[in-house]
Structure formats: structure tokens, C-alpha cells
Amino acid sequence: MNAAQDDFFNFQKGPLDDSGWTIKNVLSLPIVNKKEEIVGVATFYNRKDGKPFDDMDETLMESLTQFLGWSVLNTDTYDKMNRLENRKDIFQDMVLYHVKCRKDEIQNILNTREWFDKEPNECDEDELEEILEDELPDSEDAEIFEFHFCDFEYSELELVKCGIKMYYELGVVDKFHIPRETLVRFMYSLSKGYRKITYHNWRHGFNVGQTMFTLLMTGGLKRYYTDLETMAMVTAGFCHDIDHRGTNNLYQMKSGNPLAKLHGSSILERHHLDFGKTLLRDEVRLPSPGAGVVRDELPPLTE
Ligand SMILES: [Zn+2]
Question: Binding site, residues?
């Protein structure tokens, strides 16, 4: 339509400003995104040759505005993605707050307040070692080297202590200068990361770690691996079912659990791995005396 000749439109006849610029003709098109929503309007003024815009111009500009629509959608999506990312970080922070070993909880093992009247991070490694020597179980009495080890006689906290003792027996605490506080907090957090369910609970996680430990130490497999590898294998055993929900992968798929949407296959297995890595990463980041040594010697965790 020729809008300028239509009574409905009241076009300004004279120049718009001091520069003398006058609107002679206008081509205005909606900017539509991929979802068929109008997200803006593109307006073109005054064809260079002074003639009115024609059908050809309209077709040309239509394809241009299509690109504009897509890029607006892309920007919107990018914006939404950033917001989701922030929301995810907040949720992760909330979850970690409840999983991570609290300051009062670490005192159940590293009772520095009772021993030295200070917090673990105020103690040096020798002081922490003194407490652990007293607090950790005797390996033989606790039967951690035995294939017939049975967790029934132990509380969940005692299993955390047994787990810490295994790292000592593997000889990796001194070799990799693992800060005592980090080790204790990590094992404690692991035990809290398991849900209170019938089978796939912390006891099960511990049992798999202990079996791995026994295979290496009592079964003699340790000589085939480096210390870093043995440490990783036992840690993997402890972590292997963390945050298990007591239901299988098919259940996650059929119930439409977000985990099934995130992971295409081995749904829960990938989740245990993610969760374990998150806990490890979180511990390594925390400032602790000597923590830098571990950070330098261990290869970086990859996604
Ligand atoms: Zn398992």
C-alpha cells in the first residue's frame, strides 16, 4: 500500500530536524523470530534513487529481517542460558552446603577444639597428625585388610575413620602431602553425600572402597599401579554410588527425572562421577595449610 497517500497515516510533510532530512518513503517490516513471535520492527526510509520502495525491496528486506529475528532469539537464548547457569550454581552451592562436612562435624574426628582449643585450620600438620594417630582405628583390629571385613559392627562415623586410615596404609598421605584437614573433610563429606536408603548408602560406598583397598593391598595388585593410581582407585570405590536414589536408570528415564534428560546413557553412573568430581574439586579449592602441594602434584580434573 502507499501509506503516504492514505488518510489513516499522518506523515510529517516538512524536514524532521535542522539538517533538513525529510521522510519521502518508508518500508516497515515486523521482525519475526523462529518461534513466529514478533520481536521488533525494522523500518527503512528513503530509497537512494528517490523512488518508492517496491516488491523487490520488500522481498529483500524480508530476508534481512528474518536474520535479525534469529539473532534476537539467539541473544534471548544466550541470556536465558546465563540465568540458568547462575541458578544452577546457586543450587549447587545449596546442595554442597548440606553435603559438606561442617565445622562442628569435623570435630567428631579432628577434635582440635578439645586438644588445642583452636580450629583445624589454625593447627599445623604435626598437631593434626597427633590427633589422628589417637583417633584413627588400628588397621588390624578394624580388619580393613580383610576380604571378610564386615561393616555391621561399625557406625557410619567409624567407617569414615577406617576410610581415612586406608589412605595412610596406601602411603599416599605423606607422599602427596595431603593436608589432614582436607582428607578428613573429604571423607566426611563423602559419607554425607550418600542418601539414607536401604542399599546404596554410605555403607555400600565404603564397602566397595574397602574391597578395592583389599584387592590392592592384600590381593597384591598394588605393585602393578602407581601410588597415584591406587589412591584414585580406592577414592573411586568410595565415590562410586554417591547420591544414589535407590532406583535404577530405567526408573529415572520413565519418571522423566532431569538426570535422564542430562545424560543419554549410564544415567546414574555419570551422576555419581559428576558428584564425586564436584566434591573433590571443592576440597582442593579450599584454602588449607599445604593444600597447594596437592594442587601442584595432581593432574587437573577435566570435565
Ligand atoms: Zn555400587
Answer: 204, 240-241
